[in-house]
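Retro notes (design track)

What went well: tokenization of the new backbones is finally stable.
What didn't: we kept losing track of which sequence belonged to which structure.
Fix going forward: every design gets posted as structure first, then sequence, in one message. First example under the new rule, 368 residues:
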């Protein structure tokens, strides 16, 4: 591959125009000599200093290392962990069954997919397939997920073993009040109350909740302002601000819950929601994202709440609950989306439609 033309070199300029240096002598008035000067082709020879060196300079190597470091941060840590685990599972399966893992032959990938049919959910199988593709593309290996030896087994598996994705249930406002009522005045109770109310009122994802720093929360006379540095749909880190007005009731006021937790935690910086030991000591480490699910399940158990059927009460129930409650109160779609930071109207509406499947069903107008 030829070396790139450096900026300002003669190769990038029109004929007869010097790239650098002092002005050239005036062209002779002779028509012949003038035509010769204008018609002369540009000098495309690279200066000696522009010839690529045998290897990068120390500064060049530093730039390459920095580029690789940024590339490793292109995906979220949780996503990378999942991909590594998926790849390890596939590689172990290949070793046990006499297949070569790389480069993966489409028939091998198809056989691997078929082996997961009875034990793994379709969403997990799709994620495994994405992990294989990621590994191949990252290492410049051939990868064609549309190959018939991959798509055939996958589509057949979905037709045979496919099942709807398990949806998160919406946490209704009465349910939220019941959960908050189980939170006492001790460290764990104050933390959980603040986490539940801020998570619900802010329509936050669990990753956004545990990523909140004390300095990301500003108190005003009217409530709280949250600064979210990064979200699921904001991988470039543009950030967002979310406002939480003061609650009408003391027990469900996000501002009051935040102040009560801070009065005990006494932190001016660092993670807002921290681990609390069995003895009630407040630690330094932030909660793991899965801790939000465990806290919700624990409080639901204390409140005697149980969700049965297809839906499950998960950490996402806080976000889904805000959307459905806001819609039921007549809040406009665009206002809900601005608060929840949804970019796809269809995603937001899917929560609302599911919540109103029974109450808004046209079957209710038939007089059965």
């Amino acid at each position: 591959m030829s070396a790139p033309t450096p900026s300002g070199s003669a190769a990038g300029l029109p004929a007869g125009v010097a790239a650098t240096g002092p002005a050239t002598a005036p062209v002779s008035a002779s028509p012949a000599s003038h035509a010769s000067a204008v018609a002369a082709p540009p000098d495309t020879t690279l200066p000696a200093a522009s010839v690529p060196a045998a290897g990068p300079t120390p500064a060049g190597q530093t730039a390459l290392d920095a580029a690789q470091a940024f590339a490793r941060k292109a995906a979220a840590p949780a996503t990378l962990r999942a991909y590594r685990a998926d790849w390890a599972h596939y590689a172990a399966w290949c070793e046990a069954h006499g297949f070569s893992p790389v480069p993966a032959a489409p028939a091998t990938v198809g056989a691997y997919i078929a082996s997961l049919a009875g034990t793994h959910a379709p969403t997990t199988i799709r994620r495994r397939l994405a992990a294989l593709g990621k590994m191949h593309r990252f290492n410049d290996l051939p990868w064609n997920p549309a190959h018939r030896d991959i798509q055939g087994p996958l589509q057949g598996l979905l037709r045979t073993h496919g099942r709807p994705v398990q949806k998160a249930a919406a946490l209704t406002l009465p349910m939220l009040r019941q959960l908050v009522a189980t939170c006492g005045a001790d460290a764990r109770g104050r933390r959980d109350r603040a986490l539940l109310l801020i998570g619900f009122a802010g329509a936050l994802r669990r990753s956004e909740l545990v990523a909140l720093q004390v300095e990301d929360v500003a108190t005003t006379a009217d409530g709280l302002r949250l600064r979210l540095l990064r979200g699921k749909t904001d991988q470039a880190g543009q950030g967002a601000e979310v406002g939480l007005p003061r609650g009408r009731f003391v027990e469900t006021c996000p501002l009051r819950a935040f102040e009560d937790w801070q009065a005990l935690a006494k932190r001016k910086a660092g993670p807002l929601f921290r681990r609390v030991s069995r003895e009630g000591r407040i630690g330094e480490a932030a909660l793991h994202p899965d801790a939000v699910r465990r806290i919700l399940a624990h409080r639901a158990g204390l409140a005697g709440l149980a969700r049965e059927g297809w839906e499950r009460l998960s950490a996402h129930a806080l976000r889904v609950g805000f959307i459905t409650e806001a819609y039921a109160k007549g809040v406009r779609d665009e206002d809900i989306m601005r608060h929840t930071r949804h970019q796809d109207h269809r995603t937001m509406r899917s929560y609302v439609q599911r919540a109103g499947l029974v109450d808004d069903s046209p079957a209710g107008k038939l007089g059965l």
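Added context from the reviewer: Confidence is low (pLDDT under 50) at residues 1-51.
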